[in-house]
Write a structure and sequence with these properties.
heterodimer; A: 268 residues; six-stranded mixed sheet; 37% helix; 26% strand; B: 406 residues; alpha+beta; 10 strands; binds adenosine-5'-diphosphate; binds magnesium ion
Chain lengths: 268, 406
């Protein structure tokens, strides 16, 4: 376990080959069996996602985006196919090793936030560090506060989820996803429940994190949102039908600064 | 997961769900407290009955002239031979296991002291009756065998009689009272004994020399019953056997013929009473187990109702890197903490309730370690099992399935 942590740090460092694939899937198939009915959610997906990339997964509802995200987030296992995360063949790992991977290399952001209720923002952000043996209580506190700072919620550390707006809850969830210094942050429709301005704020945070060297994959069905990423991958019926580089990604922070103040009052 | 973090997570989780924590604990508290209180009542009454039976005397055997009704048809009244003093002599001469034997007659007497009246039982016995029954005098002296031979009109009275004829704290030694119009001199007062196992006041009686009561008061020639004591407790059956043989021989009854008298030993009486209080204990234990069960079902319900929420919580924890084992350990710790805390409160409450019953209802209670351990272990087992079981299921799911759980 010690060695794996070292690996994580090495990958997160600057001296890594820029062409290295963080995520590499080959012929990925996922079939849900519900009684006699088989749902083919993924029908052979091949793709590589490189270090420092910022990818938007697009596609209609039911096209397999979430299924894909869950598998690359090690929350679910594929029926068939190969998945290399940071060079490690995930299919050969035990449950405990997968948990370790989720803890050290992956930050996952859900559409529905999935924060622990009746638990302060700070304690929610601390959660991944609770399962990291190397971290002292002081480090845990410091890193969690830093993560909250990074998403602009330092002053909300002791608020409970039900005292926070949707955008704030999602930012807490993002802080939680980045607190363990992951190689990649995966976000399944992170702006799906948010209004335009709040969505922009969330995209701004992702862009900032991406600039700091964290690979990011988000799912969205909004072309507007995808325009803030570097690459767009489109799904249809469990297959990738298109992958394009975004010409000139939009800059969320800049646009936010230009937004009229009146909207901000609405949001509050 | 570090042990420290595990404890932090456990305590946080419990304090964040105060209602759930409280309700679960309540189930354990009720179960444990009721078992302890119920068994304390049962055990207490059992012990007090045993204590009261020991006030009968030491190694006592009661002999009366009537066939036992158990195991056969009860004989007609006239068919059994009356007992006489010869029987007493025969027993004291020929039964080595018997320490003392006394004839016994009993009549009811109207006691008069001036304008004070009291009606009570008058016993005619030998002085060794006091040895057999373990009776002591609180003041005065006992009559002797000489008093018996000359049928002296002296008597020893109980505390209740003193109070009713002379008033509280009176000292009537040397005073004369009339019993059924015959004047008696009071020479002694028995030590206070209180109620016996059957609720009778053991201080409400007059004891006089056997011949005095038999001849002067009752004017009969036979004796009503005999009271004997064995030399040791283990000799009670032997004594019973010897007395049976002697009396049968005197009545020309063969060894295989049924006796026309009955011998009851203190052991018999104790066994009967213990069996009765045993039934009481079983009854109370049943009630206690029902409340234990109800408490258990309460715990189970709360745990199962919170499964959805908890499964999602487990999903969240696993999605950020908790291993199944981390989650299970946390849930086990939670259940353990609840059980220990609830058990502790339950024991305290059970003891308090027992004491309250003892004080307010003046019912004897005895708290046993077994009842504490048994109830504690049972409720904890339920608490731990139902805390752990849903967690075990959830922890074996994929994180995504746990998150989606409904
Ligand atoms: N747990 C599941 N059990 C059965 N079928 C599922 C499950 N999750 C998703 N599906 C099915 O798989 C397909 C892809 O779903 P999903 O990956 O959620 O699509 P998207 O996120 O693109 O909307 C859909 O047809 C959906 O109904
Ligand atoms: Mg989806």
């Amino acid at each position: 376990m010690h060695r794996r942590c070292k690996e994580v740090e090495a990958v997160a460092g600057e001296d890594i080959d820029m062409n290295k694939a963080i995520i590499s899937v080959k012929a990925l198939v996922k079939i849900y069996k519900m009684g006699d009915v088989e749902v083919h959610a993924l029908r052979g997906v091949n793709t590589d996602i490189m270090k420092d990339d910022f990818v938007a997964i697009m596609g209609k509802s039911g096209s397999g985006k979430s299924t894909f995200m869950n598998i690359i987030g090690c929350l679910d296992v594929p029926t068939r196919g190969q998945y290399l995360l940071d060079g490690v063949d995930v299919s050969s790992l035990t449950k405990d090793q997968l948990a370790n991977l989720r803890n050290h290399k992956i930050g996952f952001v859900f559409q529905s936030f999935n924060l622990l209720s009746r638990t302060s923002a700070l304690e929610n952000v601390e959660l991944p560090l609770m399962y990291n043996k190397k971290i002292t209580s002081r480090e845990m506190r410091e890193r969690s506060l830093n993560a909250l700072e990074a998403v602009g919620l330092a002053d909300r550390a002791h608020h409970f989820p039900n005292q926070l707006s949707g955008g704030e809850q999602q930012r807490v969830a993002i802080a939680r996803s980045l607190v363990n210094n992951p190689v990649v942050i995966l976000a399944d429709e992170p702006t799906g429940n948010l209004d335009t301005r709040t969505s922009l704020e969330v995209m701004g945070i992702f862009q900032k994190l991406n600039q700091q060297g964290i690979t990011i994959v988000i799912v969205t069905h909004e072309a507007d949102i995808a325009a803030y990423t570097k690459r767009n991958i489109s799904f249809r019926d469990g297959r990738i039908i298109k992958a394009i580089e975004v010409d000139k990604p939009r800059n969320a922070a800049e646009e936010l600064a230009l937004m009229p103040v009146i909207v901000e009052e609405d949001d509050l | 997961m570090k042990m420290k973090n595990l404890l932090i997570a456990t305590v946080r989780s419990l304090s964040k769900n105060k209602m759930r924590t409280f309700l679960t604990m309540l189930g354990i508290i009720i179960g444990v407290a009721s078992v302890i209180a119920m068994l304390a009542i049962g055990q207490g009454s059992k012990q007090s009955i045993q204590a009261q039976i020991s006030t009968l005397g030491t190694n006592v055997l009661m002999i009366w002239p009537q066939a036992s009704s158990t195991g056969g048809v009860r004989m007609e009244a006239g068919s059994s031979q009356k007992m006489t003093l010869e029987d007493v002599t025969a027993i004291s001469d020929r039964c080595p296991a018997v320490a003392y034997v006394t004839p016994q007659v009993r009549t009811s007497g109207q006691l008069v002291n001036g304008n004070m009246n009291w009606r009570t039982s008058v016993f005619g016995v030998y002085p060794n009756y006091f040895e057999i029954r373990n009776l002591r005098l609180s003041s005065g002296s006992l009559f002797s065998m000489n008093d018996d031979r000359s049928a002296t009109k002296v008597c020893v009275i109980g505390q209740t009689v003193v109070t009713n004829l002379f008033g509280v704290n009176a000292d009537p030694i040397g005073s004369f009272i009339r019993i059924n119009k015959i004047p008696f001199k009071i020479i002694g007062i028995t030590e206070k004994k209180g109620q016996n196992a059957f609720g009778q006041d053991q201080d409400d009686m007059v004891i006089a020399p056997f011949s005095t009561v038999q001849k002067r008061m009752m004017a009969i020639t036979h004796i009503q019953s005999m009271l004997a004591s064995a030399k040791t407790e283990s000799l009670i059956p032997t004594a019973s056997q010897e007395i049976t043989e002697v009396l049968k021989a005197k009545r020309n009854l063969g060894p295989s013929e049924d006796p026309d008298f009955t011998i009851r030993t203190q052991t018999d009486i104790a066994n009967t009473a213990t069996a009765t209080s045993g039934i009481l204990t079983i009854l109370l234990a049943t009630i206690a187990s029902i409340s234990l069960l109800v408490g258990g079902i309460g715990i189970m319900n709360i745990m199962l109702v919170s499964v959805t929420e908890r499964t999602r919580e487990i999903g969240i924890r696993m999605s950020v890197g908790a291993r199944g084992r981390d989650v299970l350990l946390q849930f086990l710790f939670e259940a353990l903490l609840i059980s220990l805390l609830g058990g502790f409160i339950g024991v305290t409450l059970g003891v308090l309730v027992s004491q309250l019953i003892a004080n307010i209802l003046s019912w004897p209670v005895t708290i046993t370690i077994q009842s504490i351990l048994m109830s504690f272990i049972f409720s904890s087992a339920i608490g731990i099992f139902f805390g752990w079981y849903p967690a075990r299921k959830a922890a074996s799911l994929n994180p995504i399935d746990a998150l989606r759980y409904e």
